[in-house]
Amino acid sequence: MAKTTKKKKTTSRRRAGEPVQSLRDRLHNLALNLRWSWDPPTQRLFASIDPDLNDALNRNPVALVNHAAPHRLERLAGDADFLTRLKGVEQDLQRYLKHKPWYARNHTPKQRKMRVAYFCAEFAIHEAFPMYSGGLGVLAGDHLKSASDLGVPLCAVGLLYRYGYYKQEIKPDGGTHPTYPPYDFDQLPITDTGKTIKLKIGRRDVVAKVWLAQVGRVPAYLLDTDHPRNKNAEDRAITHYLYGGDNETRIRQEMLLGVGGVKALEAVGEDFTVLHLNEGHAAFAPLEVVRQHVDGDKLPLDEAIELVKPHTVFTTHTPVPAGHDRFDVKLARKYLNPYLTRSKITTNQVLKLGSEAPSDRAMPLCMTALALRMSDHRNGVAKLHGKVSRQMWKEFHGCAKSKDVPIGHVTNGVHPQTWLAPEAYPVYDKHLKADWLNATPTADPWAKAKSIPDDELWQTRSMLRRRLVRFARNHSQQRALRMGAGAAELARLSDLLDENALTIGFARRFATYKRAPLIFTDLKRLMAIVADDAGPVQFIFAGKAHPADTGGQAYLQQVVQMSQKPGFKGRIAVLENYDMQIGRMLTSGCDIWLNNPLRPNEASGTSGMKPPLHGGVNLSILDGWWPEGYNGKNGYAIGDGREYTSQAKQDRYDAGCIYDLLENEIVPKFYKRGKDGVPKRWVKVMRESMRSVPAQFSTHRMLGDYVSGYYLPAHG
User: Fold this and answer.
1) What pTM value is reported for the model?
2) Phi-psi region of 637 (alpha: psi -120 to 50; beta: other; left: phi over 0)
3) Can you list the domains of the chain with their CATH numbers?
């Protein structure tokens, strides 16, 4: 009889799974808390859904979940590894939100009742949420993130712009072509609070919807007048463009931000104890609180002001007189008269409060003057800027000496995790061991930078430079394709820049005082520096000027045209449509960060605080924050702080100092290598930059200063 063999029973491993709609809902809920914008594991999870689509949608997880192909989500719904990772980041978010943060651990029950209402015209949280134009917005976004990490009781108020700032296309001749694509709010990381507010702007009642952007622990309430209940197109357009339109549009936006912002907080049930005005755009906010005391509580105007001032913090960011918002008397009356129709406050009283010379009835309404008179707590954004501000407002305060002007300073910072390249985390985790969950204002993991071996620090720096160069090549090729470039030009751009060359970055708002083209002052000398085969130097520029800023646009055009000259071509790159992604790539990838404003016009400047997170080094005028940050070993100072009355003479002097430093200090140190290929002297500067800058110039430290020096005194 033939021997029979028993067949083994085979079973396939059942994959874990869940309904596709359930998965979509979980991902959407995760995307609605903007903590993902500074959490690399969550970013990687979303990117893994569809990497190409993720990039095409500007790394916007809400749009990604909405547009992901059904078959892709169906596959992920049965992918046990993906579901495990999803559960992990969900749990991590909950752990973050439930963790007892620094503020709760270190303050009394009375202090924990503090609630700061932080008003700003723009917030930069992530490039997928384009409600910002430049440094003010970036600072405000980082402020919210550190408030979340530290648990500072704070909510934010701003505007939600249908068309944002603008998208920048650079034409072949270097001119700028601005475009304004509309944003679909259903594709943004925001939710409808279900609340609307109404206020008088001009002769009409204007309705604004209140949206919520959740930034970790911090709610940001954003007002939107593009609402069907507003029948007038002019009213719907109030929140169309960030800083768009004329002075009349500006005063309408600022009434919405200030007056409407206070009404929005009341509508959503936010009971604030401190008002923080981040720039003068929001000066109507304390005026609205004063009006409520006068009309609702029947207080005299002077008493109402004295009730509000102790609880108001005002931060000024503008070191030049022309930078402060002013509205002529006729325009101011056009909007104040209807607002105050039923109030016991008169327009003349408000004009006097906002006047730089109250005895002159023709003096414009100055929003900074109004903010100063409505606040007891005032600050500039760097030590030097505080000094400049005290001098600027000395006569206004009737002080014989500027030191007696009641304006202090809180030096700005940056939110470390937002700007830290994910590729740098292995070095941080191994050597610095930063405890992000237990963030405090004084924590300083960068003090351990001395423990990073030279070769590891240099390898990280070289890797980040290569990443930047490849990004710049791809970005430039995409621009060339849009302009119809042929195969030869695309091939040339594939070799744009050198992955191993000393790379200098310049990326910021292209205001004229920042002098983007300064490096081109002496073309012959610069060309010799750039083209030196033994130690080549290359530059990457990016930045936007306001479309109405013809001087700034001309500076950008000049830089583009210089990049196309023989001798510079391939060594100088200009990246269009500067946004937070380009900012992260440049600040992490550049060896040198160049900053050459006309001193003392830079209030603070935060871009240079980001490269040291990655061993980058500053080469900067002693302006803004750099006089506080420079210690003689952690970077380079351009000049000695001297100021000439002639800008042409100042430009020649400052440019000459840059060339001298490159030729005699920077290039020799960068290219002098040991047997192991590591530039020991340069790495020493890198390490000192990493050790000395990030902790001192973080928004964690900055929030600590605001809490102790401004918020708690204002809370009372």
Assistant:
1) 0.95
2) beta
3) 20-98 (no CATH), 102-412+704-715 (3.40.50.2000), 449-697 (3.40.50.2000)
